Automatic annotation (TrEMBL):
Main localization category: membrane
Topology in membrane: Multi-pass membrane protein
Ranges that cross the membrane: 6-32, 74-95, 115-137, 157-182, 194-216, 222-241, 248-269, 297-320
Keywords for the protein's UniProt record, in alphabetical order: Cell membrane, Electron transport, Heme, Iron, Membrane, Metal-binding, Transmembrane, Transmembrane helix, Transport
Origin superkingdom: Bacteria
Family: Belongs to the cytochrome ubiquinol oxidase subunit 2 family.
UniProt keyword Membrane present: yes
Lineage, top ranks: Bacteria, Bacillati, Actinomycetota, Actinomycetes, Streptosporangiales
Organism this protein belongs to: Actinocorallia longicatena
Subcellular location: Cell membrane
InterPro entries: Cyt-d_oxidase_su2
One Pfam family hit: Cyt_bd_oxida_II
Protein name: Cytochrome d ubiquinol oxidase subunit II
Length: 335
């Protein structure tokens, strides 16, 4: 196995980890407008992700950095061709971070409402646009013989990619609602469980249509397997939610996100960005990769530091594993 195969797998794992972890962050941010009945309950929802959301974003930075170092041609073409949607995602992530950090700095309802809107839209926009972006990556875009994107922004808004955006939006929101049910107590917990069961039906229909479309257009035997497993994990998550077993429900909703992302990367391989103009113009793991020496250095760095990062993040989740409720919010903070 060449190192560019290893790094394609590593990047797939990094993006999968990002969608698994940041997915429920996005879901919680979206649910602040649906589950919370007042400011105190909204504070509870935000506190469920408060200790971990910024650490989860590290997976995005690492995935982007790995793409830049391991496949510079892929990174350059992707970030130039997808400039506007990726810029919108970046702005949304910044706005969301400001909302989480600043909503508690003021005392008036108007101040908090404005920052709550930032959290909502800062979660909704990336949850949708990541699906649009990866839908286009799998489907392919207009690349010329120099691997330059020659399409327009509107070419990215094709039916397959838009459906991908609806799938990620619904799956991440479902993932977030199951996480809220797992992390909270009392009425919020029951409300989140009911919401997950209702949204799960919509998410299941969208996901099945998208995965079947992916299989028919780009699929292999492996993608068929992961797609079926993803659907089964989603059904299992809804069943566990109905049974009140939130831990299993969260593991299975996360498993659905992981398997759906794996399906996309398996459908993409060995390309990293197909061309819809000509197969000869496509970027592959071979023609888009860095030099063997660069990949070798990166491998040693990853072997040394990745276990440390994973251990630290696992420790963080262990420390903040307990459920919270409205009683957990200090009176001064909720006033």
């Amino acid at each position: 196995m060449h190192l560019y195969h290893l790094w394609f797998i590593a990047i797939a794992v990094l993006w999968t980890g990002y969608f698994f972890l940041e997915g429920f962050d996005f879901g919680v941010g979206i649910l602040t407008r649906f589950l919370a009945r007042n400011d105190l309950e909204r504070r509870v929802l935000i506190n469920t992700i408060g200790p971990v959301w910024d650490g989860n974003e590290v997976w995005l930075l690492t995935a982007g950095g790995a793409m830049f170092a391991a496949f510079p041609e892929w990174y350059a073409t992707l970030f130039s061709g997808f400039y506007l949607p990726l810029l919108l995602i970046l702005v949304a992530l910044i706005v969301r971070a400001m909302g989480i950090d600043y909503r508690g700095k003021g005392t008036t309802p108007r101040w908090r409402d404005r920052w709550d809107l930032c959290i909502f839209f800062g979660s909704l926009v990336p949850a949708f646009l990541w699906g649009v972006a990866f839908g286009n990556i799998v489907r392919g875009v207009k690349l010329d013989e120099n691997h330059h994107y020659v399409g327009t922004f509107w070419d990215l808004l094709n039916p397959y990619a838009l459906l991908g955006g609806l799938v990620t939006l619904s799956l991440f929101t479902l993932h977030g609602s199951v996480f809220v049910a797992l992390k909270t107590e009392g009425e919020i917990r029951h409300r989140a469980s009911r919401f997950a069961q209702q949204l799960g039906l919509i998410a299941a229909v969208l996901a099945v249509i998208f995965l079947v479309w992916t299989q028919l257009a780009h699929g292999t035997g492996w993608t068929a397997l992961t797609a079926v497993l993803a659907a089964l994990a989603l059904v299992g998550s809804l069943a566990m939610t109905r049974a009140g077993r939130e831990g299993w429900a969260f593991a299975l909703s996360g498993g659905c996100v992981i398997l759906a992302t794996a399906t996309l990367f398996l459908a993409l391989y060995p390309d990293v960005l197909p061309s819809t103009i000509s197969d000869a113009n496509s970027l592959t793991i071979e023609n888009a990769s860095a030099t063997p020496k660069s990949l070798g250095i990166m491998t040693w760095v990853a072997v040394i530091f990745l276990p440390l990062v994973l251990a630290y993040q696992a420790w963080t989740y262990w420390v903040f594993r307990k459920r919270i409720g409205t009683h957990s919010i200090p009176v001064a903070a909720s006033a």
